[in-house]
Every structure is written in structure tokens, then in C-alpha cells.
Design goal:
- The strands form three sheets. A seven-stranded mixed β-sheet has the order 7-6-5-8-9-11-10, sandwiched between helices. A four-stranded antiparallel β-sheet has the order 1-2-3-4, with helices on one face.
- The protein has two domains: 212 residues, Up-down Bundle (Growth Hormone, Chain: A); 235 residues, Vaccinia Virus protein VP39 (Rossmann fold).
- A hairpin with a 4-residue loop joins strand 1 and strand 2.
- It is elongated and about 90 Å long.
- The chain is of the alpha/beta class and 532 residues long.
- 55% of the residues lie in helices and 15% in strands.
- It has 18 helices and 13 strands.
Length: 532
């Protein structure tokens, strides 16, 4: 027996209210624990919604920094507004909390689907992103005042103690949600299905607080309506989850001009291959960025590879190039002894190894015993290896995000310079000097800062437009020419290379600040460059 109950048994006159409170204490503790568990689950779900919006933006638009900044800033701002807006709702805290959570589950759970549809069909991605981020933030912000009221109704306690309990559960839930998103939801369910499932969990956890723990405070009719609303939300999320794959395939096809024949998401990116109805044009897209068209890729890869081979080229390093097309050009030289290809994503290499169209395009380069593939980040691999090469071919993706921007930094080119054998050459694909002029010449500044002397040149690749490269050495700027033993080419020759060094007056050299790890220059997919 408790001390209060002992006093009552001895007739000491403890009040009936105190005795009742003492008897109810275990039940109150259980109820508080369950409410805090609901706080934990709802916080985890809320953070998943935030991360899902950031991830989708980075997939579709690139530039994770901008996407994260916009989403988080809008949500945190809206959370403050939501907390203020929830004040009048505290008079009916239990019912209001259930309504808030059901709406949040529906809006947050379907947010990725809505935004993907807006991107694919309506070109309204950015406006809807702002609306959804504000809406989710408002609803998340409304949770705290309502939950605080419910906790105090179970058992009165000091405000500081109640706030500590509430925020402890909230922050731990956010931790779990943040870890579950990349390590559980994305690999097991995917972005679209994962957010729908989280929405269902959110709806059940939120409604359970009202329909179970606080049912005595809500009128029967209201409970019935909330039950129907919960069933409707769960049914809607279930239907959308079942049809998610079909929706994604339809939306993806809407984005691309030609039929999609391969679509998969690796640990690093979305891989899409399209093929024209007549079969003459196969295109590879990584995160929506065109990597090559089979109609004219030879122009790009010949211009990239052959100028670098006008010198010693027994040992060659390729950074990127997981499609095997640059390796194809390199392996056409009989005196190439080894090619080391370092590409981050094994899924791209696997596709290039097994797909008949890819194997035909790359001349089955991956079956050549001279080619060694290493699946690793190029920057990390260069740091960890002291090997030297006669030629380094940097065939890396455009710098449209911080992780890829580092591949075009002074630090990366310093590592490339260390990897060059005496007299070695490095060639870098550097984007378009016509459409992204500042980006192109920033690469030249970065190469020079790293101790390399670049020679600029550009060619026309119809799928890309005007496209530029830099050939560089650790000595003086190299002469742009074909190797004496160069194999027969379809496009590049000495005449083309001579013309490739001529730039229009309005696209001439710019004296710009180099890109570094701490101050990267990022290429926006809209074609503008911005430094951060």
C-alpha cells in the first residue's frame, strides 16, 4: 500500500480526492507513456515527410543544398505559425489532435506523389513544393500545443517537466525517423511507397490517442466521424500504395520523349534508358540528366579520348564512364596495356555489361582483360591510391550538386595531377561553353590553380549542343592533335581539333575564381551556375 493509503487505513483523514489520485497513478503513468509514444511516432513521421521532399527535389532538380534549405526553412517557419494557430483548438484538444494527424497523414503521405505528378504533367513543381512544405509545417507545429494540453489533462505537472518529457520524445522520434529514411524506407520501399506507408502509420498513431486514450472526452458522434475519417485515409493511402508502381511508370514516361525500356533506382541515382520506337536512338539518363544518345555519342567520346592519346598511353585511368563508351575508344589502341575505370555506381556498370544495346555500343569493352573496374568515389579513390597513369580521362557527371561539384574542384585536380606520370595528360569534360560559359571557364581556373596547364576546345554534339573539354598537362599547355597511331575515327581528326580551339568572341576566355571543396560551383539544371 502507498503511504497515503496507509494514512487512510489508520484513519488519519486523508481526503478522498488524494486517495483516488493515488489509486489512479499507475493508470495515469501508462496513459502518459502511451501519449509520449504517439509523440515519438508522429515526430518520426514528420521528419520523414521533410526528408522525402528534400530527396525528391534533389532527384528531379539537383542541388540538394537549395532543396534542403527551402524545405526546412519553410517548414520551421510554418511550424511556428501552426503552434500559434493551435491555441483555440486546445479547448477540444483530443478531437483536434486526431483531425490534425489525419490531415497530416494524408498531406504528408501523398506529398511525393503530388509533387511528382506536378513535375511530370503540370510544370508546377516549385509552387506546389512551397504549398506542401508550409502545409506540413503548419500541421506539425499544431501538434505540440495539443499534445501538451493532453498530457496535462492526464496529470498536472510543472511546465518545465512537461516540456522536457514532450520534447525528449519528439527529438528521439525525429532521430529514428531520420535514420529510418535512408537505411530502411528508401532501400526497402522506395520514396513513393515509403511516404505512403509512413502516412498510414501517422494516421493510426494520431487517431489512437483520441479514439482510445481520450475516448471519454469525445462525444460518441465525433468518435464515429473520426473513425470513418481514419478508415477513409487508410483506404486512400492503401489504394495509392498499390497503384504507386503504375503511377510512377506513367509519370516517368511522361517526362521522357521516347519509351522507357529500363528504369531502376540504385543506391546513388535513378537510372533510365529510353529507346525510340524505331530503335535507332537509345539514351541513358541519370537522375534525369542525359548522359548520351546512341545517335551521336561517338562525337563526344572521340573528342574526349583521342586528343589525350597523343603521347604515352600505356596506362590509362578513367574517372566515371560507367557506360564503357570512353573505354571503348581507349581499348581501340593496341598499345594500351591497362585501363582502370573508377565509377561510383555498380548498377550503371552492370547495365553496360549485360544490356545487349549497351554491349553493342561499347564494343563489349568490359569483356576486354585490359579493363579493370573499381566501384568507388573518384575523389576518395584518388586520395587512397598512389598509382600513376600516362592518361587520365575525367568523364564525370555534370556538377549539379555538391557531391558532384567536388569532382571539379581544385582539390580533385590536385589529386589528378599527382596521379599523372611524367609527361602525362588529363582530359576533362567541362560542360557547354555556350550555355554555361562561366561554368566552363571556372573549370579552367580550377585546373590552373591545381598546377595544370589547360588547352580549351569544344565540338558540336547535337544531343547536347556545343560541348567543351580541357586537355591539360603539368607542363606547358598541350598541343591539340591526334596520335600518330590513332585508330580510324568517325568524327574527330586533326582538322576538327584545329577548328575546335576557335571560340566566338562572346564565348571567349573568362578570368574566374576556381571551384574548391569549401566553395564549390554548382551547375543548376536550368543552365545557370551559382557558387555557394
Amino acid at each position: 500500500m502507498t503511504s497515503v493509503q496507509d494514512d487512510v487505513a489508520r484513519g488519519t483523514g486523508a481526503s478522498e480526492a488524494t486517495v483516488a489520485e493515488a489509486k489512479d497513478a499507475p493508470r495515469a503513468r501508462r496513459r502518459r507513456a502511451l501519449v509520449l509514444a504517439a509523440v515519438f511516432v508522429c515526430a518520426a513521421c514528420g521528419l520523414v515527410y521533410e526528408l522525402a521532399l528534400v530527396a525528391l527535389g534533389s532527384y528531379l532538380l539537383g542541388n540538394t543544398i537549395t532543396q534542403a534549405s527551402v524545405v526546412l526553412a519553410l517548414m520551421v517557419f510554418a511550424m511556428g505559425l501552426g503552434s500559434l494557430a493551435a491555441k483555440p483548438l486546445t479547448r477540444h484538444a483530443a478531437a483536434s489532435f486526431a483531425v490534425v494527424e489525419l490531415v497530416l497523414a494524408l498531406v504528408g503521405g501523398t506529398s511525393v506523389l503530388i509533387l511528382y505528378a506536378a513535375f511530370a504533367w503540370w510544370s508546377l513543381y516549385q509552387p506546389l513544393l512551397v504549398v506542401l512544405a508550409l502545409a506540413i509545417g503548419l500541421l506539425i507545429g499544431a501538434e505540440i500545443p495539443l499534445l501538451m494540453t493532453l498530457l496535462q489533462r492526464i496529470r498536472r505537472q510543472e511546465a518545465s517537466s512537461a516540456v522536457a518529457d514532450l520534447f525528449a520524445a519528439d527529438y528521439v522520434g525525429a532521430l529514428i525517423g531520420g535514420l529510418a529514411f535512408p537505411f530502411v524506407l528508401l532501400p526497402w520501399l522506395g520514396l513513393l511507397e515509403g511516404t505512403l506507408v509512413v502516412g498510414a502509420v501517422n494516421a493510426v498513431a494520431g487517431a489512437a490517442v483520441t479514439l482510445w486514450l481520450f475516448r471519454s472526452e469525445v462525444r460518441r458522434r465525433v468518435r464515429a466521424l473520426l473513425g470513418v475519417a481514419l478508415a477513409a485515409v487508410l483506404a486512400a493511402l492503401l489504394v495509392l500504395a498499390v497503384t504507386a508502381s503504375a503511377f510512377e511508370a506513367t509519370a516517368r514516361q511522361r517526362i521522357f520523349r521516347d519509351p522507357v525500356v529500363v528504369a531502376e533506382r540504385s543506391d546513388y541515382q535513378e537510372i533510365v534508358v529510353t529507346r525510340s520506337l524505331r530503335g535507332g536512338d537509345t539514351r541513358l539518363f541519370l537522375n534525369g540528366d542525359l548522359q548520351f544518345s546512341s545517335l551521336d555519342e561517338y562525337r563526344y567520346h572521340e573528342a574526349l579520348v583521342h586528343p589525350a592519346m597523343a603521347g604515352a598511353h600505356a596506362r590509362v585511368l578513367v574517372l566515371g564512364g560507367g557506360d564503357g563508351l570512353a573505354a571503348r575508344e581507349l581499348l581501340r589502341y593496341d598499345d594500351v596495356e591497362s585501363v582502370t575505370l573508377v565509377d561510383l555506381d555498380p548498377a550503371v556498370v552492370s547495365l553496360a555489361r549485360r544490356d545487349p544495346t549497351f554491349r553493342d555500343l561499347n564494343d563489349d569493352a568490359f569483356a576486354d582483360p585490359r579493363l579493370t573496374v573499381v566501384n568507388a568515389d573518384a575523389f576518395g579513390w584518388l586520395r587512397a591510391n598512389d598509382e600513376q597513369f600516362d592518361v587520365v580521362v575525367a568523364d564525370m557527371p555534370d556538377a549539379d550538386d555538391v557531391p558532384t561539384a567536388k569532382l571539379y574542384s581544385v582539390e580533385t585536380y590536385g589529386l589528378v595531377r599527382r596521379a599523372l606520370a611524367p609527361g602525362g595528360r588529363v582530359v576533362v569534360q567541362a560542360g557547354s561553353p555556350y550555355f554555361a560559359r562561366e561554368a566552363y571557364w571556372t573549370t579552367a581556373a580550377s585546373l590552373r590553380t591545381a598546377g595544370l596547364s589547360p588547352t580549351a576546345y569544344h565540338v558540336d554534339v547535337p544531343s547536347f549542343g556545343d560541348w567543351g573539354f580541357f586537355l591539360a598537362t603539368a607542363g606547358s599547355a598541350p598541343e591539340l592533335r591526334m596520335a600518330p597511331d590513332a585508330p580510324r575515327t568517325r568524327f574527330v581528326d586533326d582538322g576538327v581539333l584545329a577548328a575546335a580551339q576557335v571560340f566566338p568572341k562572346d564565348r571567349g576566355v573568362l578570368d574566374l575564381t576556381p571551384s574548391t571543396l569549401l566553395d564549390p560551383v554548382i551547375l543548376e539544371r536550368q543552365g545557370t551556375w551559382r557558387g555557394y
